[in-house]
Amino acid sequence: MARTSHACLDNGLLAGLSMGLFVAMFELNAWALTSLEHTPGVNWIFLPAGLRVFLVLILGAPGALGLVLGTWAIDLLHGAPWTTGLFLNGLVSGLTPWLLRLGLERLRLFPQDLRDLHWPALSRYVLLYALLNALSHQTAWLLTGWRASLVWVDIWPMVVGDLAGALIVIGLWRLLLQRRTAML
Fold first, then answer.
1. How confident is the model at residue 127 (pLDDT cuts 50, 70, 90)?
2. Deepest of 26, 31, 49, 116, by most Cβ within 10 A of its Cβ?
3. Can you give the residue ranges of every domain in the chain?
């Protein structure tokens, strides 16, 4: 019983940390790269996409939950009313990268143990993530009317932005790991 409560507490803390990091990265992106916004919610470089990939790969379900909660927090902090569109936006934000990972693992196209992760599997994941994330966000927005969206116009900048953001964050993380390894 104590072991289960500790695991729940740990997962809750990880989800909370993920939420905080995602909100902070979103605000940093909005501040630093505002000139690269295609339309509200669609950026040519979206660094939080890289954080989504990182959190889901490293933390799994707690990372995905933190992304859902973080997206809801961002939308509410920016004045959006609590609607079905806002609800779906959060679910899409957190569950798309996590469900993609689970699906690729099931198909044996992505390792369950990240020690076995190599560039071809990671690049496949990032590309599919960018495509599925943009498609699922645009579809949710279209179905709920939550954001004015021209799906076939807005989907491509979103794919590019998510792909660029993910590659930048992963590249920076890799650089940090290499420097850390060189220092040891």
1. very high
2. 49
3. 2-183
CA angle 165, 57, 5 (to 5 degrees): 130
For the chain, give the percent of residues with pLDDT over 90. 58
Lookup result for tokens 């989907």: 155
Tokens (6 digits) for 180:
């850390």
Residue 94: its pLDDT value, please?
Answer: 96
Any residues with CB less than 8 A from the CB of 149 and at least 6 apart, and which? 39, 138, 141, 142
CB 53 within 8 A of CB 169: yes
pTM for the whole thing?
A: 0.89
Alpha helix segments (H runs only) across the chain? 2-32, 47-59, 61-77, 84-106, 119-144, 151-183
As a whole number of angstroms, the distance between CA 170 and CA 50 comes to 7
How buried is residue 77: exposed, middle or buried, by Cβ count under 10 Å (0-12/13-18/19+)? exposed
What's the CATH class of domain 2-183?
Answer: mainly alpha
